UniProtKB/TrEMBL annotation:
Every Barstar (barnase inhibitor) domain range: 47-121
Full protein name: Barstar (Barnase inhibitor)
Pfam families: Barstar
Organism superkingdom: Bacteria
InterPro entries given in the database record: Barstar
Length: 130
């Protein structure tokens, strides 16, 4: 990210792992709420859902990890319940979902763009593992 300003437009942005701290710092300076998805305890969508739920409460909670649609709906609802208007989600370890990474990114992008009520959601995803 270097000297370039951080782009906090709505949606998903792929950034080098070494830039994530700078993104978080700039987000805080701009008054955004920052949510960092912790490293999953394993690989797969269920572990990813659990990791997201640790920082943004999924509403309703997801039982198991079978449905990406249920995850999208629960994440959307969880974000709408947050008190903050400017939200930055940082996902440093996108390898956690294995071969479903592209699907996870598409869902995160869709949810970020669908959230209304004056909220702006930016998602930053690392190009590599944390």
């Amino acid at each position: 990210m270097g000297a370039e300003p951080v782009n906090f437009d709505v949606g998903v942005k792929i950034v080098p792992n070494e830039c994530l701290d700078a993104v978080a710092g700039e987000a805080v300076r701009r008054g955004c709420a920052v949510y960092v998805v912790p490293r999953a305890e394993g690989v797969g969508r269920h572990e990813f859902f659990r990791a997201v739920d640790r920082v943004i409460r999924l509403v309703p909670p997801i039982v198991g990890g079978r449905s990406w649609d249920a995850f999208a709906d629960s994440l959307w609802e969880g974000i709408t319940l947050l008190e903050h208007e400017r939200i930055v989600i940082i996902w440093p370890d996108s390898s956690a979902v294995g071969d479903e990474r592209d699907l996870a990114l598409a869902i995160l992008d869709d949810v970020a763009r669908a959230v209304g009520d004056g909220k702006r959601v930016s998602v930053f995803v690392s190009t590599g593992n944390a």
